[in-house]
Design a protein that fits this description.
CATH superfamily of the largest domain in chain A: P-loop containing nucleotide triphosphate hydrolases
Number of domains of chain B: 1
Largest interface: A-B, 31 and 23 residues
Strand order of the largest sheet of chain A: 6-7-8-3-9-10
Shape of chain A: globular
Number of strands of chain A: 10
Radius of gyration of chain B: 21 Å
CATH architecture of the largest domain in chain A: 3-Layer(aba) Sandwich
Strand content of chain B: under 5%
CATH class of the largest domain in chain A: Alpha Beta
Order of helices and strands of chain B: HHHHHHHHHHHHH
CATH topology of the largest domain in chain A: Rossmann fold
Structural class of chain B: mainly alpha
Oligomer: heterodimer
Number of strands of chain B: 0
Largest sheet of chain B: none
Number of helices of chain A: 9
Distance between the termini of chain B: 38 Å
Number of domains of chain A: 2
Helix content of chain A: 25-40%
Order of helices and strands of chain A: EEEHEEHEHHHEHEHEEHH
Distance between the termini of chain A: 35 Å
Largest sheet of chain A: 6 strands, mixed
């Protein structure tokens, strides 16, 4: 199995605080991998380093077999990112926002691509609306549309379904699962919803205090820890390190 | 009226003054800048004989050129701030956007805005005051280039500081330019300033434009050497500020502050 992301001995220190501590992990191609851990575990810092938003203190990040440090633009052109905590400009319409990001990613046939994805994420009726007027669920779908604009090989989704009602969250997961299978996109996913992780992810990586704690399929980890679900596994790992 | 609640509201704002440089600047800095600018102008006007001086052209030219430097600087800084205000910074920099591309786009946007501003100014000046902003002839071009380069250098400094210190430093985007106004000899010659600040004036590219503009209006001549010197200075400031911005951007990435700007 080819790895789409490889980190080697990744370290990130903020002063005396070590947010990521000698983290070596592999994200496999064509799978949905969950990056889990309690608040402050180092998930966001790790993802931001993978996006080259934060510079590691030491260690290496290779994406698509290339060094992120040396091939930033080439790598980022084939990736995308979505988080409900990072918003699109609210003073533009959805269409204007999507066109802007399509141009930033060098997408060809922009209008056709946006319309194709708008149908996929059921946002066609939102295209001419102001982004500020959208509901949380609508914004999530627009953010996901933005994330698929460049037909990414790798997608980093940070709590993609956070603050969605169960119905919209379920629909979003189904769309993600479908598009992932069709496009063979590799997804690195963070969430605090363990039921969602069990439903969606092929592999789980647990980190805590910046260190790799466990990895495997959800079933493997549940079996290994002898619990009934991933939620209990999460609680045990998080509390062991307290 | 509840005295306690009024007191609470007053103190709530006073807390901010303890650690807010922009708020302290509103009290201590900007009034001083105004007093310096208009005080030096008054002193100058008291000293000189206005006979033979085209004072209307000098003042209108000064205001026009100052508007150009002020508007260009603000346009560039506000373009940058729009992405900060809209929490869009991360979305831009997780795309394959280079910092150099981001800065170039910012400069182009400021340029577009200043062209529109110049059209408005030229029409209004011509209609209301029969003053043409192009009255400096061919020198209009180097004047504008020097002012825009200097304004962009100041905007780069602003952006780098906002990048580092966040939106608490955004007042700089609107106000920093005015620090240079009293020393740029906008409304009066450098000779009207105390001798001790002459070296500061001559380190500002804008000084050469305003001095040149006055020479041109009054005597019809201008020192090309001064214009070249002003241009070289402006280019040096832009290069220095680009280096400063890149260094600050790298530092912000090390500190993880790019993420915090959006949160």
């Amino acid at each position: 199995m080819t790895n789409v992301i490889e980190t080697k001995n990744l370290v990130k220190k903020f002063g005396d605080f070590c947010a990521v501590d000698d983290l070596t992990l592999n994200i496999e191609e064509g799978k949905i991998t969950a990056l889990l851990g309690p608040n402050g575990a180092g998930k966001t810092t790790t993802i931001q380093m993978m996006l080259d938003i934060i510079t590691p203190t030491s260690g290496e990040i290779n994406i698509f077999g290339l060094s992120l440090h040396k091939h930033r633009e080439e790598i980022l052109a084939q990736m995308n990112f979505s988080s409900p905590y990072v918003q699109l400009p609210t003073n533009l319409t959805v269409m204007e926002n999507l066109k802007t990001f399509a141009r930033l990613y060098g997408v060809k046939n922009i209008k056709q691509r946006i319309e194709e994805l708008a149908d996929y994420f059921e946002i066609r009726n939102l295209l001419n609306k102001m982004t500020a007027s959208l509901s949380t669920g609508q914004l999530t779908r627009v953010n996901l549309t933005k994330a698929f604009l460049n037909d990414p090989k790798l997608l980093l989704l940070d709590e993609a379904t956070a603050s969605l009602d169960p119905d919209i969250a379920d629909k979003t997961r189904k769309v993600l699962k479908r598009i992932q299978k069709e496009k063979k996109v590799s997804i690195l996913y963070t969430s605090h919803n363990m039921q969602e992780i069990e439903e969606l992810c092929d592999k789980v990586i647990f980190i805590n205090n910046g260190k790799l704690r466990e990895e495997g399929t959800p079933e493997e980890l549940i079996k290994k820890f002898g619990h009934k679900d991933l939620n209990d596994v999460f609680l045990q790992i998080a509390r062991e390190d307290d | 009226m509840n005295y306690g609640r009024i007191k609470a509201l007053v103190i709530r704002h006073l807390y901010l003054y303890q650690r807010s440089v922009p708020r302290l600047m509103d009290i201590f800095f900007w009034p001083v800048v105004d007093i310096l600018t208009w005080g030096f102008l008054t002193v100058y006007l008291q000293k000189v004989s206005l006979n033979g001086l085209n004072i209307a052209s000098i003042l209108l030219g000064a205001i026009t050129f100052w508007l150009i430097i002020q508007m260009f600087q603000q346009a560039a800084a506000v373009t940058f701030l729009e992405d900060v205000w809209e929490k869009n910074f991360l979305n831009i920099f997780v795309a394959p956007v280079k910092v150099s591309e981001f800065l170039t786009a910012t400069a182009i946007l400021a340029l577009i805005r200043i062209i529109l501003v110049m059209i408005v100014i030229s029409v209004v000046s011509l209609v209301l005051y029969q003053y043409s902003i192009f009255s400096t002839g061919i020198y209009f071009i180097p004047f504008i280039i020097i002012l825009m380069l200097f304004a962009f250098a100041i905007a780069l400094f602003n952006m780098a500081i906002i990048l580092r210190y966040g939106t608490s430093a955004q007042t700089l985007a609107f106000g920093l330019i005015f620090i240079f106004q009293p020393f740029s000899a906008v409304f009066y010659p450098v000779s009207a300033l105390p001798a001790i600040v002459h070296p500061i004036s001559y380190l500002l590219p804008s000084t050469y434009v305003f001095e040149g503009m006055r020479q041109l209006v009054n005597f019809g001549t201008i020192s090309s050497t001064d214009i070249i010197y002003g241009l070289i200075l402006a280019i040096c400031y832009v290069v220095l500020m680009i280096i400063f911005f890149f260094k600050m951007f790298a530092k912000v990435r090390v500190q993880g502050r790019l993420l915090k700007m959006d949160s």
